[in-house]
Structures are given as C-alpha cells and as structure tokens.
Design a protein that fits this description.
Helix content is 58%, strand content 15%. The protein has one domain (39-185). The chain is elongated, with a radius of gyration of 26 Å. The protein has a 4-stranded antiparallel beta sheet with strand order 1-2-3-4. Helix 1 (9-57) packs antiparallel against helix 2. The protein is built from 8 helices and 4 strands. By secondary structure, the chain is an alpha+beta fold.
Amino acid sequence: MSRYPSIQYYPVKKLTAIAIILGFLGCFALTAHAADRNIEEGNILSSAESLFKSMKDRNYPAIWDLLSLKSRDIIAGNVYDRCDKSGCLEKEISRDFAAGGPIAKAYWDSYLAEFDPDMILEHSRWGMGAVKDKIALIILRYKKSKKPAILQMYKEKDIWKVGLEETFSPREYYGSPRDKEVCVTVPCGE
C-alpha cells in the first residue's frame, strides 16, 4: 500500500479544506461589513444629535455647518425672498448664517421659539432607517406622537448633514410672521 492517499480521496479533502477557508473568509467579510455599517450609522446619528445639541446651545455657526446644502439654500432663499427690499444679497445672508451673525441670530431665535430641541434630544426614541450611498433616514419617535418623524440625512463631502428643510418644511413655503421680524430688526450689513 502507498503512503499517499488515493487520487479519489485527495480531491475531496482538498475541496473540504477550501470550503472551510472560504466559509471563514465569508464570515470575516460579513463581520467587517457589519462593523463598517455600525460605524457609518454612528456617524449619521452623531451628526443629527450634534445639530439638535447646537440648537439647544444656540450655537448658530455649528447649526449652519451641520445642515445639508439644500437646507442652507432653502433657508437663505426664504430669508432673501422675505427681505428682498432690504438690499441684502442672498450670498450675504448665507455668509451671515455661517458666521452666526445678526440675521442668523434673529432667524434661529425665532425658529427656536417654536421648536424645542429637547423634544428630540430628551423625549424621543431614535432608530436607524434605510441607509444608502449618500442618503440615510433616522426614525424619531416622540413620546406623545402616534407617527414617527423621518429625519433625512445627506452625505456631502464624506460628512453626514441634516436635511432639516427637506424633512420638516412644507412643500411650498408660505413664510411666517416672524420672517418679517428678521428683515425689520436686522438690516443687511450691520
């Protein structure tokens, strides 16, 4: 009898070893993917939480920085539309928001007079919804609400930003009485 296994026995043993190795590699790949997804979900939730904490702290430049580009454009455009007789340019309004200037202060003070960030931070349960390439959804369940709010998040330049206007604004903006207060109390350039 030969020292070596028969030709029929050897390929089965080799195939079994290959299958076991591939199984382990598959498990490692799934574990790595799950870890990456957990990290990404953590980044998404952290960005959203940072926005509401910045609102609570009235950190106006941080609020602006955490908003999606579309939300910034909508806010600046709405303020511009309401203040078009003041001589402000939309770019000046955006710069003021980024710097936390008087227009930003008037706008966010008005916004926060109607919206309490603790409603989200302290009195809501957070959960992850769908996460795609550059869009994610956070499910916010306020304790007194029957239906959840679905917060839209957008990945811009590898950073998750909050789609505040995309999530909470009505399809067509009709303005608020407080918009005129922003224009009257804070002329552009001051």
